[in-house]
Amino acid sequence: MTKGMNMDTHRLREISDRLLENTPNDYRRYLYTQIDWRNRMVCLKGARGTGKSTILRQRLLEVHGHSEEAIYLSLDYLWLSVRELLDAIDSFYKNGVNAFYLDEVHHVPDWGALMKNLYDIYPDISIAYSGSSLLRLDGSQSDLSRRQMAYELKGLSFREYLAFEGVKDIPAVTLEELLANHRELAFEVTRGIKILPLFKRYLACGYYPFYKESPSGYAERIVEVVNKVLDSDLPTIEDVTPATIRRTKKMLSVLAASCPQQPNMAKLYRELETDRNQGVKMLEVLERARLLMLVASGRNKLDNLSKPEKIYCDNPNLMWALSSDPNSGTLRETFFVNQLRAAGHSVLLPAQGDYTVDGRWLFEVGGKTKRFTQIKDIPESYVVNDEVENTEGNKIPLWLFGFLY
Predict the structure, then answer these.
(1) In percent, how much of the chain has pLDDT > 90?
(2) Cβ distance 157 to 29 under 8 Å?
(3) How many other C-beta atoms lie within 10 A of the C-beta of residue 232?
(4) Same domain, 144 and 204
């Protein structure tokens, strides 16, 4: 035991070493190289199961190896109180630790104040921290904006899934590059592999990296994530009843199985047994928690989501977990919107066509027989076809939009 360290800090060091020893290092998520690790405080947030803990441990190992100048602490240890945590950090600091990688910080009461105090009290340390409860992280009242750089980790893109599976590792492309060179890119990706069965598998079980840990129980684990958000996270920021939570779970299942359509908001609020104001908050919260995607009309530039034109589950894997037979049209639209938004693009609903992206490009999304009938005379318009390996002109395979990040 290092001099000056008590039994609890020694135990924390042992846990850290054990977790680092078992950290996979054969693949790194897209966000790893985008983070500016030179900042004294880095916040890594994202939905549960997207790989934030792995990124923290990979970074620690890359920079510090197994030296005692860095420590990885997961703050969900049941036996670790806030007072003990502060004492442990102080003890590690006095014994030469200058880099702290803190995971699951949302388990700490008033975690924002804790991060602020650590930043201010120890001006010569670096802190990288993560949390899986987007609702609790976003709801913190402490002002950390001038102290930290924050990043959000999305689920696996289809491009990442192929690399994660060891099938093929191809760099991400910008949307402009994809639209200009989609035929050449599609040929490059499909050379030597059958892309459509891989894409079908990804839509069902490839978005959350933990699919590799327990393939047979993947859907059940996604349901556990949903329940954790609704049963534990949601009540901490909104005054909701158990009945509303139950009806919210039912709503998610209905959305997973149904065709995309403009929702009847008044009916939806009645089914949730809530009023309009509370219903609007619920939808916004569910989107922040990455359980829903709300798509507004580009015609009115709606920022007010009290009447979204369409409501989707956040990603296709979520649909498969919540419904045994999700609608194929909804699946393809969910994938399209999810991947574009994850890559930082704005997606709205236009007067003509299915989607307008960044106020510039117009898209029709459909099956392999989908044609230009509705948008044939509109500049910068494209048809996105599912169930095809390659197309030409302004027709693009749906799966290729999974290469944007």
Answers:
(1) 64
(2) no
(3) 13
(4) no
